[in-house]
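Same chain as my last thread, 101 residues:
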Amino acid sequence: MAWQGLPLASSTDAVSREEILRTGARRAAKKYATRFTSFTYVGDGVWDVRAAAALGWRFIGIGSGKEAANLRQAGAAIVTPHYRPAKAFFELLLDNPVRVA
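reply #2:
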């Protein structure tokens, strides 16, 4: 599946979050004819932190208050309340060497 030419995967492709992510990664590799060496998963749920950890992917959590605390408790080293300003969020994507523990 692709949206406006972007490779993606969703719950219609697989049941487990990890397999959805693997499917998206395979589609991206095929589309861009490359072998990616790392991925950064951006999510807002504890299940997202767990999926990133299971795959060995880097993770950026999105949340504030109790949601942010839950993400950190689950192992997220980087949590931001939102995507704005966009420049700051993209810097997190580029400078995120931390993998979920």
